[in-house]
């Protein structure tokens, strides 16, 4: 932390002094296709929003999302206003 100014300095300092990042990149296995930007909820708490979504020939509807730390692989969450079911999965998709 003695180097001086550099790109990303604030982020690095925040992580150093406050601990871990608030969000993690996780995979979601969806019950049916959904749109990017849809909210992800665990109970009443919003954990994040869908990022990239697609339909995989092997895994069906899947998505990437930056979600709060408490979303662990195996958790069941709901997506969007329709409350689509989804499972948080570890990456890479297996």
Commentary on this structure:
The protein is built from 1 helix and 6 strands. It has 94 residues and is mainly beta. It has one domain (22-89): Elongation Factor Tu (Ef-tu), domain 3 (Beta Barrel), CATH 2.40.30.110. It has a 6-stranded antiparallel β-barrel with strand order 1-4-3-2-5-6. The N and C termini lie far apart (39 Å).
Count of the domains: 1
**Assigned CATH superfamily:** Aminomethyltransferase beta-barrel domains
Rg on CA atoms, Å: 16 Å
Terminal Cα span: 39 Å
Main sheet, how many strands, which sense, barrel?
6 strands, antiparallel, barrel
Q: Tally of extended strands?
A: 6
CATH topological fold name:
Elongation Factor Tu (Ef-tu), domain 3
The geometry reads as: elongated
Poorly predicted runs are: none
Estimated helix fraction: 10-25%
- Given helix and strand content, the structural type is mainly beta
In round numbers, the mean pLDDT is 91
Count of separate DSSP helical elements: 1
Strand content: over 45%
Highest-level CATH class: Mainly Beta
What would you say the CATH architecture is? Beta Barrel
Characteristic key phrases:
94 residues, mainly beta, Elongation Factor Tu (Ef-tu), domain 3, six-stranded antiparallel beta barrel, 1 helix
In a few lines, what is going on in this structure?
11% of the residues lie in helices and 46% in strands. It is mostly beta strands.
């Amino acid at each position: 932390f003695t180097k001086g100014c550099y790109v990303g300095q604030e982020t690095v300092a925040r992580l150093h002094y406050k601990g871990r990042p608030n969000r993690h990149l996780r995979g979601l296995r969806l019950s049916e296709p959904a749109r990017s930007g849809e909210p992800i909820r665990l109970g009443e708490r919003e954990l994040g929003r869908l990022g990239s979504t697609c339909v995989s020939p092997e895994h069906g509807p899947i998505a990437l999302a930056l979600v709060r730390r408490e979303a662990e692989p195996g958790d069941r969450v709901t997506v969007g206003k329709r409350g689509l079911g989804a499972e948080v999965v570890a990456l890479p998709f297996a």
